[in-house]
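Here is one chain, start to finish.
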Amino acid sequence: MKELKVLITNHSLRERTGAEMYTYDLARGLLALGHRPVLYSPRPGALAARIRFETVPVLDDLERMESPPDIIHGQHADETVTALLRFPSTPAVYVCHDWYNSIDVPPRFPRVLRYVAVDSQCRDKLVVEHGVPEESVRVMLQFVDLEKFRPRAPLPRRPRRALVLCNYTRENAYLEALRAACARAGVSLDVYGLGVGRSHGHPEELMREYDVVFAKARTALEALAVGVSVVVYWWRRLGPVVTLEGLDRLRRENFGMRAMGRPLTPEEFGRQAEEALASYDAGEAARVSERVRAEAGRDRLVGEYVGLYESVIEEHAADSSRDEEAEARAAAAYLRSLSLAKAKEYEALSDTMTFRLRERFLRMPLIGRAAHALVRATAGARRAARHES
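Its structure:
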């Protein structure tokens, strides 16, 4: 198999969010297979440093990358288009991770030859909402690093400890209802996530200490690989306890919104959480985990990606013509969409009470003149400091 230089783009590399950890694990998987991943994000952070420790190059400016990659693995629209314009002879695959997020809108560009959806809703976003031809779209479900997320010891007959692991969780009435439901069931509850200001750098170790995990999306799949009982969860919605019968459907839906019920009141949320704990089945959780570990491993999916990269590179090489006019039109259309999005954001901002009060404040004769003078003085001091340095 030919060694491939793969440029992977991502909006940011700061936190342990789903797309960022997907990028991290994909890069490690490609490196393990003998390929050369390079990551690009204009917003690097702690996760970028962690990836560099694995000897994967991370760039925040593509001008520093002199030789072109063999393939662009695009994630998030702005960063994908940046890579396409920087390397005008390289084909691309675009991966959509999120139904809601505007940064996951697919860029329509001639050299994006395949689009990948990580679940059924992202597939519908690509095909139905954005008109990507069905023959150009593949669904490639989420994966787990099985070496990192190792099986825990057999579950107890009755659950004793539960874990919420979700960045959207907040301290509110829903979380209080969940705590009360766990207390009635005789189960202790711990909560981790960016929303409660309590993150954990090694969830693969954390999960092994619990019997039940409330989670969604990739975190839910990782918890299943560890062998705990998983309740599909978002901060004010609950889905089912994951069973062998429902596993295939839940994987296609990425344990996400389509797997959830309707929005609940805190009281309903608490009752459903108590019902989920009552349906705990250690044997069923073990059977689900065995299936996940057989079908959802990282190396299997990374191998599928390599096959996709090779077919896209071959298809691009077979078409020797490059339609510069079509690429210029695609770039112009994308810049227009950015301009419209920025205008919409400004209109929304200018309609807020904070913005209106600021404008009224600055129009006051004495206060406004003083504020503008302070801004000019601050800017002058910064210019002088830069000149001295």
